[in-house]
Design a protein that fits this description.
Largest sheet: 8 strands, antiparallel
CATH topology: 3-methyladenine DNA Glycosylase, Chain A
Oligomer: single chain
Radius of gyration: 15 Å
């Protein structure tokens, strides 16, 4: 299991290092559903106009301001629940959106895209603010993604954020066939 100190860092670093980590959910029936993270996006604080934290501390954004290593799950467009991992020390709002997984045990649905991912694993807003140290949600190192295989690009779906939309803070394992969107490889930035 990832140590809590793993999360108390810059979300851009955490986003890149979450590639190759197994996300697992213990379902109500006791079964385990999991997959290996292959795509992430970093969101950095109140100054990041693409981040929910830009609105300051609200009921919705409270998990982002809380301790690192927690789930931040929110409803997008009134339809899709999105799963994020909180980062940085408490009081410094930031998070990493988990965009796609290579499906693993217990997963029978598509996991390419943040809305599909949560449906496939059974993650809901009931998991919001839960610790990623278990017992319901855990993160374990499955393998290390070699730097040569890590691609990055601008984040997806945040065009409203102006120049912040162009920040290359989407990271992905370029070998995966389960990405939410195919993107030409860019250098780390």
């Amino acid at each position: 299991m990832l140590d809590p100190s793993f999360f108390a860092r810059d979300p851009r670093v955490v986003a890149r290092e979450l590639l190759g980590v197994r996300l697992a959910l213990r379902a109500p029936d006791g079964s385990l559903r999991s997959g290996v993270i292959v795509e992430t996006e970093a969101y950095l604080g109140e100054e990041d106009l693409a981040s929910h934290a830009r609105a300051g501390l609200t009921t919705r954004t409270a998990p982002m301001f809380g301790p690192p290593g927690r789930a931040y799950v929110y409803l997008c467009y009134g339809v899709h629940e999105m799963f994020n991992v909180t980062t940085l020390p408490e009081g410094e709002p930031s998070a990493v959106l988990i965009r796609a997984l290579d499906p693993g045990p217990g997963v029978t649905r598509a996991t390419h895209g943040p809305g599909r991912l949560t449906k496939a694993l059974g993650i809901t807003r009931a998991h919001n603010s839960l610790s990623l140290q278990g017992p319901l949600l855990t993160l374990h190192r499955a393998h290390v993604v070699d730097a040569h295989d890590v691609g990055n690009s601008p984040r997806i779906g945040v065009e409203f954020a102006g120049e912040w939309a162009d920040r290359p803070w989407r990271f992905f394992d370029s070998r995966s066939t389960h990405l939410s969107q195919r993107t030409p490889r860019r250098s780390q930035g």
